[in-house]
Amino acid sequence: MKKIFLKISAAILLSISLVGCGAKQSTENKQAEQKAEAVEGPGKDFDWNAKVAPVGKKRTYTEENSGKSFTADLTKLETAQSKLEEKRKSITDKKVQEALKVVDAFYVNQQNIDVVVKAGGFNNQKEMYKKLYDDYSKKLGVPDNETNFKFQDVNYNMKEYGAMYFKINSNAYGKAGAYDLEDYKVEGNTVYLSLKVPTVDTYQYVEQTSYKSKYSSFFASLVEITSTSDNKFERMYAKTIFYLGAVDFRGDGYVDLQGMDYLARAKQYLAIQVDDSGKVTIDNDNLSNLLRINMAASNEKNSAKFGAVEK
User: Fold this and answer.
1) Which residues, at least 6 apart from 229, have a Cβ–Cβ distance to it below 8 Å?
2) SS3 category, 209
3) Nearest CA to 201 among 258, 131, 154?
4) Which helix (H) or strand (E) segment is 234 a member of?
5) Rounded CA gap, 221 and 191, in Å?
6) Three-state SS for 295?
């Protein structure tokens, strides 16, 4: 019975649209301005400095109910890594080499995530993800009095929790291990990259919750909000807390990518600035694209450099 309910819940949860009617008072918003650093609830000890380890050559799968496990060789990943290495060896342009270090730090080895942080002009991961979430919220038109989500007597400051979700979702890409470098172009100090990359399996957030003892008392209530609330921001916030809860609000949490082995199907077009001294910078639109927060804006702009049309 639980599995049937879970599948229905997943369908509801993952079909939520950010576009909706607003109106009824479903979030309990405080008139007083929240302190940016004030974090109440299970994310108060979130480790912003956490870094996920790179993927290995093998992967162990464990059946949650029985505890049985088996290990499989990631042969497709090894092929992708070899292909990427050969492509990299053929590149002599130092600007392209420097730009690829930023991409490597996200998809290949997030122990080097500080390379991305620095290129974005930030001091640390927390500063980076909070700024990107703030930009994302403004584009969605989230009003200042809609940044608090009260759930089961806990006030979730979504300026904090939203940024946490961006981080744990980005963590997953540190397990990609590779990416397909399809093409590149250099115009002055701008390096344009055409990539094909893996994608997070968002259903895994739902799957993770099905084995947790508090599914009925915590997660099911969040699913109910996403399917019944008239407030589009409350629906978005409920989904965010659901996803964070799936990884126990851990700064090093993540879920699996699509595919049992390496699987790259998403097109990604990036523009990274590299000056003659080798200094690398990436603007927020392209950074948001790289981190898989919002790919549309820069994908549409950069794809034209490769004769592609992204909609």
Assistant:
1) 26, 235, 238
2) helix
3) 258
4) helix 232-246
5) 46
6) coil
Q: How far apart are CA 217 and CA 213, in angstroms?
A: 9
User: Would residue 227 count as lying in a domain?
Assistant: yes
Q: Does residue 37 sit within a domain?
A: no
d(CA 294, CA 247): 22
- Is residue 78 one of the residues assigned to a domain? no
Is-contact 174 109, C-beta < 8 A? yes
Domains held by the chain: number: 1
Query: What type of residue sits at position 164?
Result: M
C-alpha dist (Å) from residue 262 to 88, 169, 177, 257, 294: 19, 17, 8, 9, 22
Instruction: Extract the tokens encoding 43.
Output: 């994310």
pTM summary value: 0.87
Reading the chain (311 residues) residue by residue, the pLDDT tens digits are: 344 344 434 444 444 333 233 333 334 444 333 444 579 999 999 999 999 999 999 888 777 677 788 888 999 999 999 999 999 999 999 999 999 999 999 999 999 999 999 999 999 999 999 999 999 999 999 998 889 999 999 999 999 999 999 999 999 999 999 999 999 999 999 999 999 999 999 999 999 999 899 999 999 999 999 999 999 999 999 999 999 999 999 999 999 999 999 999 999 999 999 999 999 999 999 999 999 999 999 999 999 999 976 65
Burial code (b: 16+ CB inside 10 Å, e: under 16) for 213-225 equals eebeebbeebbeb
What crossing angle do the helices spanning 232-246 and 158-171 adopt, rounded to 10°?
50
Query: Is 73 among the domain residues?
Result: no
First-to-final CA distance of the chain:
41
In which domain, by residue range, is 176 found? Answer: 93-244+255-306
